[in-house]
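User: Just a sanity check before I run the rest of the batch. Below are the C-alpha cells for the first item. I only need the designed sequence back.
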C-alpha cells in the first residue's frame, strides 16, 4: 500500500514538473466590486508571443480558429494559433508601394466584415482595404474600400469596425505619415472619423478630435466610442448615432496620466454586455456601459489594442513587443 502511494505521488510530481511554466506579465487592479463578475482578481496575463517592434490591431478569425495582428513598423501581419503558435501570415500588410520607406507603414487595425473577410487599415497605402486572397493561402492582394475624402487622400486609417448593415466606421490620425502632422504629403488638414456606406460613399462624422484612434460600437449600435490618444490627459468620447450623423457628443471618460504608466487611449473593444475594454495609461481599462471605470489589467508596457474570442471569455492584447492573453469571466 505504501509503495502504491509513493508511486502515485511520484507520477503526480513528474506530471506537474512536465507542464510548461507560464510566462506572465502584469496584474489585475480592482477599483469597483463589479469587476469581479468580469475578471478574477488573480487572473494570469500570459505572454503568448514576443519580439515585435509594435504589435497592434488584433482580430480573431473564427472560421480559421486563429488570431491575426499587425506589427506596424515591420509591415507584417502575424498569425497565432493554440496548436501552431506564431507564424508570419502576410507581408507586406500595409505598404505595397515603392520605393521602400520607414515609419509606421504597415497595417494597423484589423477586422472582419459581415462576410467574414479580412479588412485592414493600411497606414502606408493610406486606405481601408479588403484582403482578396483566401485565408488559407494569403497573398498581399487587396481591394480598396476607401482611400480619400472629397478627392484628398486620407492620412493613415488606424482602426475600423463594421455594423450589422455593412457600414464601416474608421479613424484617420496622422501616425502612418513619416513626418506625421508636418508631412508634406498630408492632404487633409484635420484628423477625421468617417463612416463608409456599402455603396462606397464616404461621410465625415467628426473633424475636431486631435488624434482619433480606437473605435467601437455599443451592442445596440446606437453609440460610437472613440479613443483620442493626444494630449496630457487621456480622453474617451461617445457619440449617439443618428442615421449618417453623430449627436450628443460627450467625453466618456478622462484621466490624468500617472508618472511611470505607459500608454494612451488607443484600441478598444465592446462585448455583448456593453463592457468596454480599452487601452489607456497603465494597461487595459475596463468600463461599464455608463463609463464607470471598474478596474485595469495593469501592464508595464504600452498596450495598443485588444480583441475578444467568440465566446468573450478570452481577451487578447497587443502591447508593444508582446502578444498577451487573459481569461475573462464575461
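Assistant: Here's the designed sequence for the first item:
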Amino acid at each position: 500500500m505504501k509503495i502504491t502511494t509513493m508511486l502515485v505521488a511520484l507520477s503526480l510530481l513528474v506530471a506537474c514538473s512536465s507542464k510548461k511554466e507560464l510566462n506572465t506579465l502584469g496584474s489585475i487592479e480592482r477599483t469597483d466590486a463589479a469587476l469581479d463578475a468580469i475578471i478574477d482578481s488573480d487572473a494570469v496575463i500570459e505572454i503568448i508571443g514576443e519580439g515585435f517592434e509594435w504589435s497592434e490591431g488584433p482580430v480573431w478569425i473564427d472560421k480559421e480558429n486563429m488570431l491575426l495582428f499587425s506589427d506596424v513598423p515591420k509591415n507584417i501581419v502575424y498569425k497565432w494559433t493554440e496548436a501552431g503558435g506564431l507564424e508570419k501570415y502576410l507581408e507586406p500588410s500595409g505598404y505595397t508601394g515603392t520605393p521602400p520607406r520607414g515609419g509606421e507603414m504597415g497595417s494597423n487595425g484589423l477586422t472582419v466584415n459581415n462576410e467574414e473577410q479580412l479588412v485592414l487599415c493600411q497606414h502606408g497605402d493610406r486606405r481601408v482595404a479588403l484582403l482578396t486572397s483566401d485565408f488559407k493561402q494569403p497573398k498581399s492582394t487587396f481591394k480598396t474600400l476607401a482611400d480619400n475624402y472629397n478627392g484628398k487622400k486620407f492620412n493613415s486609417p488606424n482602426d475600423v469596425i463594421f455594423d450589422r448593415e455593412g457600414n464601416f466606421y474608421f479613424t484617420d490620425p496622422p501616425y502612418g505619415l513619416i513626418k506625421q502632422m508636418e508631412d508634406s504629403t498630408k492632404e487633409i488638414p484635420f484628423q477625421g472619423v468617417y463612416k463608409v456606406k456599402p455603396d462606397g460613399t464616404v461621410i465625415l462624422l467628426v473633424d475636431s478630435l486631435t488624434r482619433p484612434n480606437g473605435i467601437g460600437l455599443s451592442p445596440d449600435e446606437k453609440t460610437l466610442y472613440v479613443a483620442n490618444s493626444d494630449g496630457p490627459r487621456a480622453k474617451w468620447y461617445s457619440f449617439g448615432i443618428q442615421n449618417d450623423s453623430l449627436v450628443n457628443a460627450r467625453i466618456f471618460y478622462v484621466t490624468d496620466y500617472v508618472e511611470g504608466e505607459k500608454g494612451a487611449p488607443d484600441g478598444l473593444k465592446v462585448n455583448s454586455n456593453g463592457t468596454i475594454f480599452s487601452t489607456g495609461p497603465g494597461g487595459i481599462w475596463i468600463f461599464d456601459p455608463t463609463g464607470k471605470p471598474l478596474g485595469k489589467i495593469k501592464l508595464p508596457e504600452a498596450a495598443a489594442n485588444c480583441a475578444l474570442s467568440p465566446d468573450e471569455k478570452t481577451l487578447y492584447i497587443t502591447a508593444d513587443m508582446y502578444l498577451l492573453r487573459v481569461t475573462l469571466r464575461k
